[in-house]
Amino acid sequence: MPVTALVSAKSSGVTTAALALTLASQRASLLAECDPAGGTIRAGFLKSSVTAGYGLYHLAAAERIGTEALANAFASHLWPMDEAGHRKLLPGLTDPTQAASLSRTWPALSEVMHVLAADAGHDVFIDTGRLAFESGRLHAVLTPAPLVQQADLVLLTVRGTEQSLTLARHVIEPLRTELDERGAGADALGLLLIEDGPYRAHQVAEALKTPVLAALPWDPETAAYLTGGGRPPRGYGRSPLLRHARTAAEQLEAASSRRRIQQQYPVRPANPQLAGVLQRLTETARGGPRG
Ligand SMILES: Nc1ncnc2c1ncn2[C@@H]1O[C@H](COP(=O)(O)OP(=O)(O)OP(=O)(O)O)[C@@H](O)[C@H]1O
Ligand SMILES: [Mg+2]
Asked: Which segments carry the region annotation Disordered (predicted)?
């Protein structure tokens, strides 16, 4: 299954889309909240049920010990978002000042997520937040650059508005160059359209010279629930956002396998040090989080 990184030029619905895709996926799925500006799901959708003792920040210390320690910490910091534990969240940073300590953690964390996707069949969605460039390269602290570079798909999330397209135009070329020169290739890049505003998918694709890989409807009621938590709105499971997210997750999987076939990817070598992560994840799904 693919590792998909969702980015934006400016707040356009990345977190909401990542959450909708993770919850709607037909497979086991993970949402890793890796926005260096801080996570919002802990205080929002999960209504503070997850303490600061859980989440991304704690993985930096584990990575300093070694890959196996990171894999184990990763498994024990996932929060189940359903009873069966098939949908998991790696809660994000509680404070943006924590981001600098993660800079050296991203490459190993990326590898763990790829193992989870390739060997354990998870749909992995990473909220990588807003793009920030410095001298034409992804900023080392303000973005989790290695996660974006190594993702199977990089989805630039845009709304169908003039403002969103203008902002996206400024970042799309540097992003393409980044993926070509330091990442998985510019063909990993696609658009996720949030259907707000007058522009339709073909116009957005044309304007940004990039394919729209999936689209999600404008659905304020469901989005407000995914952003703020509380009681789910009536018919939430059949809401436009969740229904389209289910289709979108399938379209992304198809786009990623097309790309895999075209590129004739070599199979990623299995890393025996990471094998333990799969077992720990099964345990987490059965027993729920500890602590
Ligand atoms: N599909 C949608 N339909 C209606 N409202 C939406 C949709 N997606 C997002 N929103 C709303 O837009 C606002 C911003 O969404 P969200 O927090 O997901 O954006 P973001 O790109 O993650 O922003 P940031 O960069 O600040 O983290 C929220 O109020 C959310 O409820
Ligand atoms: Mg966000």
From this structure: 252-273
